[in-house]
Every structure is written in C-alpha cells, then in structure tokens.
Specification:
Elements: E1 13-14, H1 20-32, E2 38-46, E3 49-52, E4 75-79, E5 90-93, E6 103-104
Antiparallel strand pairs: 1-6, 2-3, 2-4, 4-5
Keywords: Disulfide bond
InterPro entries: C-type_lectin-like, C-type_lectin-like/link_sf, CTDL_fold, Snaclec, Sperma_CUB_dom_sf
Protein name: C-type lectin domain-containing protein
Length: about 160
C-alpha cells in the first residue's frame, strides 16, 4: 500500500475510477494543475486481487496494453503522457515510488467539525458564527452549498 493514502485528509482515500470518463476527468485535472508523468490512484493488488483503497467495487478497468503485470509492483498509477499508451490509462508500480496523487472525499460525508477561530469582537457586535460543516476541509467547486440562517423570533441576524 502506498503511503500517499495516509495523507488524504478528512477520511478521504486515493481516488477510485469507475469509468473511462472518470480517468479522463482526473487526468485532465492533474494536467491542468501542472502535474505530468504519472500519478497514484487508489488501485492496488492485495492477495492477487485488484481492489480500490476506498473499498468500492472495481467495475471498470482502464489498463494500458500489457498491464497489469505484478512484476512492476502492487500499486496503480495513471499515465499523464503517452509513454505506455494513452493519457488516462493505468499501469502498476512499486508502492514505494514517490509521486503525486489524487485524493477524493465524498462531499456528502461529514468529517470532523471544527469551528473557525472567531475574532475578538465585543459581545454587542457578535450575533453568531457561520461556518462550513467540514471547515477547514473544502468541498469541490462543482457542489452547491446552501446555508439556512435561523434565529429566535424578535432577535436580529447579523451577516
């Protein structure tokens, strides 16, 4: 197992890819971020079987020609160049290789809640705190966040 998995924050895992469009999306995301070469994804071989580190089913495999070949290692990487085929295809590699990786955490899963530190405001200036349920972990930009402010009747809401 690669050490990269242990660095995924808030209960996240290395990304699991369940379609060619998933592979294309995450390859493009990495390339846009300036990453090239290869990148760890959440696949691994354990006891001779392929599995995702998040425990999800391996319903789509996108191996490059000639792979998997466990002689190269037990962890799975995604190609960001055409060295062994197409961008987005997978090869396997030794888990000890140090390289970039992509973590994923379902935005619906609430991690531990931590309130942001409030500034020292006088009591008359502070009505309440508004915070994200997953602060300081961010949620990807494609998701809609909705805040509902409630207060007791006759009280003032400060924003």
């Amino acid at each position: 197992k690669t050490n990269a998995e242990s660095f995924c924050p808030g209960g996240g895992h290395l990304v699991s890819l369940h379609s060619e469009s998933d592979s294309s999306f995450y390859a493009q995301l990495a390339l846009t971020a300036g990453v090239n070469g290869t990148i760890f994804i959440g696949g691994q071989f354990s006891s001779g079987a392929f599995e995702w580190t998040d425990g999800s089913s391996y319903d789509s495999l996108n191996w490059a020609t000639g792979f998997p070949n466990t002689i190269f290692g037990s962890c799975v990487q995604m190609m960001l160049d055409t060295e062994f085929g197409s961008i987005g295809k997978w090869t396997n590699v030794e888990c000890s290789v140090k390289q970039p990786y992509i973590c994923f955490r379902n935005g619906k899963d609430n991690g531990p809640t931590a309130l942001p530190q409030s500034e020292n405001l006088e009591k008359s200036q502070m009505c309440a705190q508004i915070y994200s349920p997953n602060y300081p972990v961010s949620i990807p930009g494609q998701q809609t966040c909705q805040y509902i402010l409630t207060s007791d009747e006759g009280t003032k809401v400060c924003i």
